[in-house]
């Protein structure tokens, strides 16, 4: 299942932007850095404050919230 991303929100310094899945609440952070004369661009994924280690976008898996 694909994530249902919210609008991107860009950081004030422009170095990163983040969007949040409305279904599973995963956070996708797009980062840009200028380093050693070249631009680097990569993505990081988080659930809450936990970094999700992955090579590509993790699947959208809505978490059951205990009542
Ligand atoms: Zn999702």
Can you give a write-up of this model?
The radius of gyration is 14 Å and the shape is elongated. It starts with 8 loop residues before the first strand and ends in a 15-residue tail after the last strand. The chain is 0% helix and 45% strand. The chain contains no helices and five strands. A five-stranded antiparallel beta sheet has the order 1-2-3-4-5, with no helix packed on it. The chain is mainly beta and 67 residues long. A hairpin with a 2-residue loop joins β3 (26-35) and β4. It has a domain at 9-49.
Main sheet specs? 5 strands, antiparallel
The bound ligands are:
zinc ion
Question: What portion of residues belong to β-strands?
Answer: 35-45%
The helix/strand class is mainly beta
The count of DSSP E runs of length 2 or more, i.e. the number of strands, is 5
Helix residue percentage = under 10%
| Helix count from the secondary structure assignment | 0
Q: Note poorly predicted spans.
A: none
What is the N-to-C order of secondary-structure elements (H for helix, E for strand)? EEEEE
The order of strands across the largest sheet is 1-2-3-4-5
Distance between the termini: 24 Å
Oligomer: single chain
Global outline: elongated
Average pLDDT taken over every residue: 90
- Cα radius of gyration in angstroms: 14 Å
């Amino acid at each position: 299942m694909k994530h249902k991303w919210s609008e991107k929100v860009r950081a004030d310094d422009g170095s990163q932007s983040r969007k949040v899945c409305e279904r599973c609440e995963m956070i996708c952070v797009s980062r840009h850095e200028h380093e050693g004369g070249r631009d680097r661009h990569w993505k990081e994924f988080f659930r809450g404050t936990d970094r999700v280690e992955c090579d590509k976008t993790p699947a959208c898996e809505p978490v059951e919230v205990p009542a």
